[in-house]
Amino acid sequence: MSKFRSNGKREMPELNTSSLPDLIFTVLFFFMMVTSMRDVTPLVQVKTPTGGSEIEKLERKSLVSHIYIGPPAKQFRATMGSAPRIQLNENFAELEAIREFVHAERESMFEKDKPLMKMSLKIDKETHYGIVDDVKLELRKAKALNIVYSAIQEKPKN
Amino acid sequence: MGKGKRKVPGLNQSSTADISFILLIFFLVTTSMDTDSGLSRRLPEWDPNVEEQEMTIKERNVMTVKVNKNNEILVKNGKLNRPVDIAELKDIAKEFIANPDEDPNLPVIEPYDIEGYGTVNTTIKHVIALQADRGTSYEVYFKVQHELSKAYTELRDAWARRHFGKPLIECDPKTEEPIARAVYASKISESNPKEYGTEQ
After folding, report:
1. Closest to B42 (Cβ–Cβ): which among A34, A145, A151?
2. pTM, two decimal places
3. Cβ distance A116 to A62 under 8 Å?
4. Is the model's pLDDT at A32 over the cut of 70?
5. What does the pLDDT read at residue B193?
6. For position B16, what pLDDT does the model report?
7. Backbone angles phi, psi at A32, to 5 degrees
8. pLDDT tens, position by position, A134-158
9. Which residues from chain B sit within 8 angstroms of residue A156, using beta carbons?
């Protein structure tokens, strides 16, 4: 019996934490890889419509530029009213600015990617179609013909 | 001077974990994992001279989908002319595009040559003219686009099952999928029905 009996005081062995930084670094690198900085602060409120099977994911983010259309956010309501406005980059914009925006976006891309440029239209579902039609005409004039009606994919019901 | 051998003191690394934790939390916060998704479309080329050009299309080849400012959908083709519900639209569009019973009031079925496959009989000349009022809600407009798109996808899927023996999603995206896409090529025109501005 006494062979196995410990002699009273026993100290808890200290945990070896020397590999902890390596562990954290691995997780850190994972997040650095998948991260993409939040693109813009929204000035307009956009709630995109929901769709089903036809919604596809946009694969290469570098090819996509965004145009936001919707009612101004709450803090701008007092001065701008609630009629839908267009947001390009960080500013409110008029229809005429779209062409310039498209050219600027196109210039910032690699030569071989230019024909693949996609415009993602993030449009609030309460918006009237008129402004959407105007924007589409401007995009056609600017030769940005690939568009995506941004939408949320609904989960299938089974 | 010294005692000869001198040991390099070990660096205290106990704070490395803390530093990397801070970095980790920073990236966690700034990460947006949500990928953008949506309905892809291709706009027709814009040419100021083309707007005047008129192309006559046989009446049986045209289906007009009108959405008015009260968000009511009106469908007119060779067979029917009435307001429809959004839920009906897909099946009406499918019947119009494929014309399975070879109805003389629906689009002409004719042989069409597809590169890399051969000749198929399809309604290659059909046009769906989508006209939305400026006052239409975008949500309804989007749903109409979605339903029309779904009609095409389901027809392509059925075609792929018949001819390749497998659903469209299992088809080779480089070879088989474009063929199924060409058989039922999307012909949604968003301008005046007499013009030929098609959206892919």
Report:
1. A145
2. 0.76
3. no
4. yes
5. 37
6. 81
7. -65, -35
8. 898 888 888 888 899 988 887 765 5
9. none
Query: Could you give the CA distance from residue B177 to residue B168 in angstroms, rounded to a whole number?
Result: 7
Question: CB–CB of A132/B141 below 8 Å?
Answer: yes
Distance CA A61, CA A35 (A): 12
Residues of B in contact with A120 (CB under 8 A): 36, 38
User: Would you call B38 and A28 a contact, using CB atoms and an 8 Å cutoff?
Assistant: no
**What angle (nearest 5°) sits at the alpha carbon of residue B123, between those of residues A116 and B88?**
85
Structural domains of chain A, with CATH: 50-153 (3.30.420.270)
Q: Test B41 with A148 for CB contact under 8 angstroms.
A: yes
Q: What is the CATH number of domain B59-199?
A: 3.30.420.270
User: Residue B45 and residue A145: Cβ atoms within 8 Å?
Assistant: yes
How far apart (Å, rounded) are the C-alpha atoms in residues B93 and B152? Answer: 8
* B86 sits in which H/E element: helix B86-98
Q: Please enumerate in sequence order all residues whose Cβ is within 8 A of that of B35, keeping only pairs 6 or more positions apart, or say none.
A: A57, A58, A61
CA–CA distance, B48 with A11 (Å, rounded to integer) = 87
CB contact under 8 A, A27 and B24: yes
d(CA B158, CA B152): 10
- Listed residue (A135, A41, A128, A38) closest to A86, CA to CA: A135
Tens digit of each residue's pLDDT (9 = 90 or more) over B67-113: 888 888 998 888 888 888 888 888 888 888 888 888 888 888 888 88
ipTM of this complex prediction, to 2 decimal places? 0.75
Over residues A76-115, the pLDDT tens digits come to 888 888 888 898 888 888 888 888 899 988 888 888 888 8
